Amino acid sequence: MLADNQLLQPLRQQSRNDAVLDALAEFISSSGVEPGSKLPTERELTERLQVGRSTVREALKRWEALGIVETRKGSGTFLRLPVAPGDIHINLTIRRQQQSLLQTLDIRRALETEASVIAAQRATREDLARMEACLDRMEEVHLREGSAGPEDWQFHLSIYEATGNPMFGQIVHHMRMPIYSFFDNPFDQRGFSADSFPIHRELFDAIAAGDIEDAREKTLAILAITEADARAATNEK
Length: 237
Known about the structure:
This protein is mostly helical. The chain contains ten helices and two strands, in the order αααββααααααα. A two-stranded antiparallel ribbon has the order 1-2. Strand 1 (69-72) and strand 2 (76-79) form a beta hairpin.
């Protein structure tokens, strides 16, 4: 797999995840790897690039969330889309990320709208207290830093938990990478979906009041802002 050792060289310390992807894109381009081909193993990449295995794994997860590679259990990681070094930070990262986010957004609408409705029907006092604590933390961090992706994620997880149906948690767990990509500074835009933050409080109030229709409406409003920002990132309608 790595007959030409010159294509993958030890990395310097700057932007290590990006550096791994840059080096791998250069390797793919220079060695003529085609979609469907198996990529070097994590161990091979770790040894050649002289970075930690966790760094390689996280970098590949970013590509997997964008649909660029596919990990097959017991078989390895395979290239799904053609990659050129110049695409990594411009067209590929933005357009593939947009495509991935919009596809995942269809799933989020179905899951989160239903979860909000069920939570409005079933949430206990303990559920509401946990949800509000997550919301307070999200608002605090957002006010201080202008962004609160991980805290936003925890708030949405608290809604799934408030349904009382563990199947929601299992589905989200298996889709955690593409779903979490909404909260992990997408498109490197710090203010991504920032206009939706005030609506999260309104969503909590609707769930706490047991207002099913309002919970549904607020969930869809949050996701509509997210979709608009994703499309605006590439100036597409």
